[in-house]
Amino acid sequence: MTHRPRDLRVLPAGDPAEDPEFPPGVDEPPSELDRRAVMKLLAAGAGLAGLGSIAACMEAPSKRIMPRVVEPPELTPGVPLEYATSMVLDGFATGLVVTAHEARPTKVEGNPDHPASLGATNQLHQASILELYDPDRPRGALEAGVPTSLEALLRSIARRAPMPGLWFLLHPQSSPLGADLIDRVRARHPTARFAWYSAVDRRSVYQGARRVFGRPLEPQYRFDLADVIVSLDADFLAAMANSVRWSRDFANRRRLRTPEDRMSRLYVAEPCPSPTGSLADAALPARPAEIRTLAAAILARLEGRADDHALSPRHERWTAAAAADLRAGRGLVVAGDRQPAEVHALAHLINAAIGANGTTVAFTAPAVIDPLGPGLSELAEEIRRGGVQTLVIVEANPVYSAPAALDFAALLARVPETICSAVTHHETSRRCRWFIPLAHYLESWGDARAYDGTISMIQPLIRPMYQSATLPELLAAFAGTEQPDTHRMLLDRYEHGDPLAWQRLLQRGVVTGSAPRGFVPPIQLTAGDRQALVAPTPAEPTGDAAIELAFAPSHAVYDGRFAGISWLQEMPKPIDKITWGNAALLSPATAEALGVGDDDVVRITAGKAQVELPVFVVPGHADRCATLELGYGRWAATPTAEGVGANVYPLRPLATPAYATGAQAGVRIEPTGRRSRLARTQEHFTQYGRDLAPTADLETYRAQPDFTAHLWGDQPTWLPDKRHGTPQWAMTIDTMICSGCSACVVACQAENNVPVVGADGVRRNREMHWLRIDTYREDRGDRVEYVHQPMLCQHCEMAPCEYVCPVYATQHSPDGLNEMIYNRCIGTRFCSNNCPYKVRRFNFFDYTEPTPAPLRLQYNPNVTVRARGVMEKCTYCVQRIRSAEIRARKANREIQPGEVVTACQQACPTGAIQFGQLQHEGTEMVERRKQARHYAVLHDLDTRPRTAYLAKISNPNPRLP
Amino acid sequence: MSSRLLIGRPSDAELGEQLLGTTWRPGGRGWRIAFLITGGLTVLLISLITYTIGTGIGVWGTMIPVAWAFAIINFVWWIGIGHAGTFISAILYLFEQGWRTSINRLAEAMTLFAVLQAAIFPVLHLGRPWFAYWLFPYPSQMEVWPQVKSALPWDAAAVSTYFTVSLLFWYLGLIPDLASLRDHAPTRRRRFIYGLFAFGWNGKATTWRHYRAGYLLLAGLATPLVLSVHSVVSSDFAIALVPGWHSTIFPPYFVAGAIFSGFAMVLTLLIPVRAVFKLHNVITEKHLENCAKLTLVTGLIVAYGYILEWFLAWYSGETAEWYEVWVARPTGPGLVLFYLAMSCNVLVPQLFWWKRARTKVWLLWPLSLLINLGMWSERFMIIVQSLEREYLPSMWGDYLPTWVDLGILLGTLGFFTFLFLLFLRLVPIISLSEMRDMKHEIVHRERGHG
């Protein structure tokens, strides 16, 4: 491929008068060349040079993107703009609204108009913005590691004759445009095959539906309508495709306003407590392989058949209670993605048996393209047969994540031509001949479907930072387009000659009414098939050696693709509070049997693969089972991702990628005698009888609604009341609907320029999060009860931090905020010592200075970047309060209820965090403070916190002990 | 006045020769090695201070929740040590205790140098030490003054006042001896230098009269400081609501602890000085015994403070405080230091009920070292262990110092010793003028005129 330098002589000779680069007279000598004139010229020259460089950076986008708010069509410096776009994860789009300051995106929020978001986000959406600014993003295309021209590469691809043996390996896709392009690629290269691969595989969902209904379908759950929810290893609040939306739906059925309100009852059977399991009313520790038996047992009870499943008494009681509740109320059974097709099929049968189909469950065609199409194993088979001549891998990283038995790296080496495209380099891209930088979604055009099928638009917030292509452009090049342009393709598809409609579409971010209607398909199941499904599973091997491994995508770095994002690496994970790494999570009994405790390194063997991991003991975990988080131990990624934790992918068996049983895979766990300290942000998970986060079950609550009465109310004092004047800001947090998902933690970090400190910093207890989630668990005999308590500055009216500061660096504002004056702080840290909530964070080092330049582009310009040696803490997002004040003042009005939303509140999928003014009667925030179950943490210290909490009420089945 | 305070009845000239001679008798090889070691440690201290200020206090083990650790422990410990000097020189002076005469200069020098070590830490431990002056009520153009509700500006005021008054008091006592040095100096250069510092002392009766009045006034001024400084320091903790800090017993408990550790340090220094300079005739067993007795008394007050802490933690009914005192300290992460504090501060002083332990240096000296160790451990117990286990178990954290923490502690020990060695070589260790006074009084009384 030749790369011809641009020939200057063929440029069109334009009229110099029209060329803004040469204004009239610039090439004439000034008439009078005195000292002043020379100075002027010099200054003008310097100015022009500056302008020129600014123009080069800030060049107006050649395609028009639409701000979400129509108020000022132009960009006003200092006034951030918001644009609707979407982030796609394994084919499912979540609508976002991204804030841009002076054309640089700084913060991700949910799109209230988008069905998968309703204005909320999860931790991955929040952190995704940091990947855009990753300093290690590749700057251009590579051929065998040598820079090459992307344009020329795409052109040469477009010009290629039909290629035999052309394979694509992509993450699951739902883009309507992508579907067209795939057809076009197939038209040009008739033998082209598309394989779909994500380390977090959802094929079993579709296989289960196909088994029962004859075709792959996507179940659409209505958690807001269900009285009884049975989760079969499904973390539907935090780890599934539509979790953000489902969290809101679920919470809507659990938001008690009065003790008489009804709430749903949640049964969860899973190996390791998940965010969903931590909210369960009846949690049952069960190994992944036991889930099928539980499902079959529930179905047997519902159908009144003799239960011939060998269940332990505890499992027996649980299934009996769940079945009875499902029969009595409006029920819903949801099976986890990692469970095999049989469990999904059984869940469908149970839902059918209790009449849930049509009420709490409906079905749609899957949003993803070709849901049961070829996967990694088909591709591997084809490579082995020598049928793959050219392999195009986009985003997917099988060299890292494929099971060891596949040895994908060796297979890849056998493919003659390999092309990889990814946002950042990964293990696979480094082994491919060609590398094409993939545009980040915040710099891409595109479209995709949400979980319910709604078409969502992706519009760029920023011109591509570096040379890059989008997936549609790549596909279009293969389809023969020499200069592919996603924007053009989208216009062709959605504009329909109506530019205004196109504008509105971009402003809204979703194609209204594009979600297919849910329906209930007839069950097409032969009697034999049914018999096979409900038949008892063969007795599992017993004995001490039989141990099962359960693999779960990391709550922080997902399948490893987000491992380069430091915010996620440092996010304490909901249940174990581990940052920067993964652990072998074991039940106390299993750990005792192995003779290991927290931080003891164990060697885990499955087949030929061996991995060493430190242990963390999780009460409530299933016995004889270890939960291992995927996504760590990257070895050829970005510096942030590499060497964090251990890679457990090689342990996964080919047949059941989500779990490995001892019998199948020869699983062994043995202590090594070494220790490796995990970087945890919380070490003590019990309340030591201190009544810090009170809980009650529904019956107790109804009998005694004011069971938290001793934890609120004023205590006698001579100090003056500080609740005068308007407005007075306050926050209420409902611990009942907090799953600990930590979207708020990352949102706070993004909004407030909170630095990361690294694993060693966390080990030294120096993490900087302004908002953390304290998780307490109480062992109540047979069950472990979790309560998550988001903990941030309580903005105490009688703040203990304020009176000990010798220099007035922390003070109370008239509107009830506890304010930090960074410039005045000299760093005595007395305030931190005297803060009983320990929410103050100290800059032990200069954490900002080492931040690489591109990452600084993410900073929120409205929040001070803190210097070394000063204290910092939650401000109740004071910058948002002050912006609202300025807006209100300009419009000569009061701040409206709901006008100020803190970053944590905005991100929270369940709406557990509410913020506002005490004067705004009738708002959710004020209404909650009047509920009987509210409390102040450490009330007896009479700090009078402005942050009030609502006690967690659970709804256990009285028949279950 | 007991005759046991002076063994033998030397003439004024003999006394002068013995006590002034320490300044111009050439030091041997041992001295050079001692200066080399302590000088090296001083350089280490300066390097580590530079490193800390240049990099941030993240190089220490401090963290959240233990935001105060070695720096504040060292501060309280050193300033506590400083208390004995002023106690001896001012309070015992007002109470006309003759046995203070031969040890007051040494004890006061110890005070000065200990306060100097202590003064490093409140500045160094700041996140931004270059703004330490904001703690003082200086006329700022922003008209911002320190907040008087916080104990820290009081701390700054108390410590700086204490240092100033101690320095003046010490120096005033030194002036007659500097004049003696000037008058007896073997070289011109020394005579000139000592003369410069002697402020033209002429030894006239009127001069002596003014001097006595001034000394008495300063003694009166310094006396309340002995009680106030550590009371203020204790309020750094007592005004906070940290379980284990929030207690009204703190001021007397801290003052007693300070004098307790101060006397232990006096013994630690006095015993080797007495041996090296062969001062057995002027620093007698009686002196050592008196110091040991005071150590026992203050040690008993400290023990009472401990008992009250335990009692109040139970009596208050506050779960966090009860847990802190009854569970976290004896069984928590720093339990070794808890048991060190208890055994060294409560059990060790009980040995002083026996005369042998009070008078035999081979027993007294190691015991004094143990008490110093115990008092450092007590500050660790109060500061670090309290912070490790506060109200919210979710934020409990275990503290570990870094090498910089240990290096700075070692460095201050070296710097302190360095200054003390300089003191031993440059001025009379024992106040010659007061010794002569005392000798005349003793002789006078012995001749039946008393």
Write the layout of secondary structure elements.
The complex is a heterodimer of chains A (961) and B (450).
Chain A: H1 35-58, E1 81-89, E2 92-101, E3 104-110, H2 123-132, E4 142-143, E5 146-147, H3 150-159, E6 166-170, H4 176-188, E7 193-196, H5 203-213, E8 218-221, E9 228-232, H6 243-252, E10 265-270, H7 275-278, E11 282-285, H8 291-302, H9 313-328, E12 331-335, H10 341-353, E13 361-364, H11 376-384, E14 390-394, H12 398-401, H13 408-413, E15 417-422, E16 434-437, E17 446-449, E18 455-458, H14 471-478, H15 486-494, H16 499-508, H17 527-534, E19 548-553, H18 566-569, E20 578-579, E21 584-586, H19 588-594, E22 600-606, E23 609-617, E24 625-630, E25 659-660, H20 662-665, E26 668-675, E27 679-680, E28 695-697, H21 698-703, E29 729-734, H22 743-751, H23 758-763, E30 772-780, E31 783-791, H24 800-804, E32 810-812, E33 818-820, H25 830-834, E34 841-842, H26 853-856, E35 871-872, H27 878-890, H28 903-907, E36 913-917, H29 924-929, E37 934-935, E38 947-950, E39 952-954
Parallel strand pairs in A: 6-7, 6-14, 9-10, 9-12, 10-11, 14-15, 15-16, 19-24, 21-23, 28-39, 29-38
Antiparallel strand pairs in A: 1-2, 2-3, 4-5, 4-16, 8-13, 17-18, 19-25, 20-27, 21-24, 22-23, 22-26, 29-36, 30-31, 32-33, 34-35, 37-38
Chain B: H1 12-24, H2 29-55, H3 70-94, H4 104-124, H5 151-184, H6 188-197, H7 205-238, H8 250-276, H9 285-315, H10 319-331, H11 335-350, H12 355-359, H13 361-388, H14 403-426, H15 432-449
Helix pairs in contact in B: 2-14, 3-4, 3-7, 3-8, 3-13, 4-5, 4-8, 4-14, 5-6, 5-7, 7-8, 8-9, 8-13, 9-10, 9-11, 10-11, 10-13, 11-13
Question: What does it look like?
Answer:
- The complex is a heterodimer of chains A (961) and B (450).
- Chain A is of the alpha/beta class and 961 residues long.
- Helices cover 26% and strands 19% of the residues of chain A.
- In chain A, strands 5-4-16-15-14-6-7 form a 7-stranded mixed beta sheet, covered by helices on one side. In chain A, strands 25-19-24-21-23-22-26 form a 7-stranded mixed beta sheet.
- In chain A, helix 6 links the parallel strand 9 and strand 10.
- In chain A, helix 4 runs parallel beside helix 14.
- Classes of the chains: A alpha/beta (961), B mainly alpha (450).
